[in-house]
Specification:
Elements lengths: L25 E7 L5 H18 L10 H21 L4 E8 L8 E9 L24 H7 L2 E7 L2 E10 L21 H7 L10 H20 L4 H12 L6 E7 L1 H7 L8 E8 L5 H10 L12 E4 L12 E10 L2 E11 L6 H38 L10 E8 L9 E9 L2 E9 L3 H20 L4 H30 L14 E10 L5 E8 L5 E3 L5 E3 L3 E2 L13 E5 L4 E5 L1 H4 L2 E2 L2 E2 L5 H7 L6 H14 L9 E8 L1
Parallel strand pairs: 15-18
Antiparallel strand pairs: 1-2, 2-3, 3-5, 4-5, 6-7, 6-10, 8-9, 9-10, 11-23, 12-13, 13-14, 14-15, 15-19, 16-17, 16-20, 20-23, 21-22
Helix pairs in contact: 1-2, 2-3, 2-5, 4-5, 5-9, 6-9, 9-10, 10-11
């Protein structure tokens, strides 16, 4: 997903106002999608708003402090998380800075989060969870603790939860319950010191530690969850911990085969040192050498908690002593690696810090596990994709060919396919298809349809007959196979219940046959079944449709298809595309509106087949600033 647009509307009061007559407030608002990325976007939005108001010297902004910003970010994160988890709709976020009026003791920062599912109640108290359950927000108890006042407003079709934070005022201190683990219940001054970066260590304000830990874990989760490469997860872990919580950090990663065979794991053996971070870059290689030479060993009984390990001596900025802790990275009952941290000149880490890092290490382990699953799925998809498409297209004497194929999901199989193959002496066949649906279900249909096409063509069936038989096969075998695949995907994805009815049996197909004529030239016979019509370009630049529309394959049991025949003369070019080209959108306009594809094709007169395919692809991409939201396939045939 790309960056989320933030539309702001800001108003300021006039600088001179009578006493106790505040002007209009400063207001910013934005709309966020109801998905897991919304809380991170909301936190970024609120921080940017507060920074802007401070820089622009907005009335009441003088009272904005770092603590107020932290409270506001934590509060908006909780409210947006609540809306996403419990409503699942688009979320509207409003942030307003009110100047104190008559009878009010301080200026106020108001944060309001609205969703469009007013029938869903907000969570007030966190439900009891078994140990090890991931956190999904602390409920409105946290909102009540942070805010001066809060409430819920119901409007037609909308539920808004709002909270007011005093700007420049003093709130009663109410301790927030521990976010991390039982070891972090009592957070003290030492943890406050270590939670800040080294140049600006904080040595006071115990309550800030609770707030800082919450924000650190929440933002770390967002950053880690967005990585699909375990090496990047390891690198990011080091960046987050050093120098905030440690002088240095190292991450070992287990081999997947080793992990699967070992189960819970038994230490560092069989792993590789994936990443080393140090607060002083000059000592990274020295530390790496020391750790590779003598890696720490964890006992068989070690879980995900902190385990003291030997200090690597001279490896850390000339310090010969310090404290080092190792955390086994465990997810799904399997050891994925080991995280080791060190702080020079310390006898021991504070318990509150070890508890915080233990929670952090769990998030690292989950991110590594997710990255490995993604990489396995991507590898399977790439292998599957290679099996669904021809390894090469046939060379046809006297005919140039050009192909462009771009699946929407670069890591997975698309719903489009193409083929160009020899079906007999002096006879070649081509196909361009688009299966309804994506992913595994679509791949199953393609895996059946393409071999069927080749078999029927080589058996000597004519174009219309091939479509007739393929239509019947789709209604039989492909329906059953695609539904079975959909059921497997639904259960594997946690839906539990497979969808009802056929999902991906419908196929739009452009299928044709090229025959070399004895006196020279090429005879083309083709048919379009629910597919964007092919276009024929003459050397003079005239464009016309080369087929008539017919019904999709896999819809009607007794459908009968017809074909059309014409000759390709020297310089004639045939363009075949999928709807990823014709239905490419910018706003409400599609690429093929007002014969847009024909106009683009006409500009290709005189180009060879490969250049025509590339130009159409380029024009489709340039049509909109947004990335394509559908698969795209282009097949061009040009008579020489």
């Amino acid at each position: 997903m790309g960056s989320i647009p933030m539309q702001r509307e800001t108003t300021f009061r006039a600088p001179a106002q009578p006493e106790h007559q505040p002007g209009p407030p400063a207001v910013v608002c934005t709309s966020l999608p109801g998905n897991p990325l919304a809380p991170a976007a909301a936190r970024k939005f609120v921080r940017a708003a507060l920074a802007d108001w401070t820089e622009l010297a907005v009335p009441a902004a003088a009272g904005i402090t770092d603590r107020l910003a932290d409270d506001a970010v934590l509060l908006v994160s909780e409210l947006v998380t609540n809306a996403v988890v419990h409503a699942g709709t688009t979320v509207e976020l409003l942030c307003r800075l009110d100047e104190a009026g008559l009878g009010e003791s301080s200026d106020t920062l108001v944060i309001e989060v609205s969703d469009h599912h007013p029938a869903r109640s907000v969570r007030s108290e966190p439900a009891p969870q078994p140990p090890g359950t991931p956190e999904y927000g602390r409920g409105l108890q946290l909102v009540a603790t942070l805010s001066d006042s809060w409430g819920i407003t119901y409007r037609t079709g909308t539920k808004a939860v709002w909270a007011r934070l005093p700007v420049g005022g003093v709130q009663a201190v109410q301790e927030i319950e521990s976010y991390a683990s039982e070891q972090a219940m009592q957070r003290g001054h030492r943890a406050a010191e270590l939670l800040a970066p080294l140049p600006k260590r904080i040595t006071h304000d115990t309550e800030w530690v609770n707030r800082g830990a919450l924000t650190f874990l929440a933002e770390s989760s967002d950053l880690l969850a967005g990585q699909f490469d375990e090496e990047l997860v390891a690198a990011l872990a080091g960046q987050l911990l050093v120098p905030r919580l440690a002088d240095w950090c190292a991450v070992w990663l287990d081999d997947e085969a080793e992990t699967a065979g070992r189960g819970g794991g038994s230490g560092i053996a069989g792993t590789r040192l994936a990443r080393v971070w140090h607060s002083s870059e000059h000592h990274i290689e020295l530390l790496r050498h020391a750790l590779e030479k003598d890696p720490p060993r964890l006992p068989e009984s070690a879980g995900s908690g902190a385990v003291p390990v030997p200090w690597p001596g001279e490896a850390s900025a000339g310090e010969t002593s310090g404290t080092a802790l190792a955390y086994r990275l465990v997810a799904g009952g399997r050891s994925l690696g080991t995280l080791v941290i060190g702080r020079a000149g310390m006898v021991r880490f504070a318990d509150e810090v070890t508890g915080l890092i233990e929670d952090f290490s769990r998030r690292v382990a989950l991110a590594i596990s997710a990255a490995r699953r993604y990489q396995r799925q991507a590898t399977i998809s790439q292998v599957l994709q290679r099996g669904l498409l021809p390894s090469s297209v046939a060379d046809i004497p006297g005919v140039q060919s050009g192909v462009v194929y771009e699946p929407r999901d670069k890591g997975g199989p698309g719903g489009d396919f193409y083929d160009l193959f020899q079906a007999g002496k002096g006879r070649w066949c081509f196909a361009l298809g688009d299966v309804q649906g994506k992913g595994v279900e679509a791949a199953v249909v393609i895996g059946l349809a393409r071999p069927w096409l080749r078999l029927l063509a080589r058996e000597g069936y004519e174009v219309a007959e091939v479509l007739d038989r393929l239509n019947q096969l789709l209604l039989d075998d492909a329906t059953e196979a695609a539904d079975a695949a959909a059921a497997v995907v639904a259960v594997a994805g946690g839906q539990g219940v497979p969808p009802e009815g056929a999902t991906s049996r419908f196929l739009s197909l452009l299928y044709g046959e090229l025959v070399l004529l004895d006196g020279g030239g090429v005879r083309c016979t083709l048919a379009s079944a629910g597919h964007p019509l092919p276009l024929l370009l003459s050397p003079e630049g005239h464009v016309r449709p080369a087929a008539t529309p017919q019904l999709l394959l896999g819809v009607v049991d007794d459908a009968t298809y017809k074909s059309e025949t014409f000759e390709l003369h020297t310089g004639d070019t045939l363009l075949c595309v999928t709807d990823g080209v014709t239905e490419r959108r910018t706003g409400r306009q599609m690429f093929d509106d007002d014969d847009g594809l024909a106009t683009a094709f006409a500009s290709c007169a005189g180009l060879d087949a490969g250049l025509v395919a590339e130009r159409i692809k380029r024009l489709v991409h340039e049509f909109s600033e947004r990335p394509p939201d559908d698969d795209m396939a282009v097949l061009v045939l040009r008579a020489e």
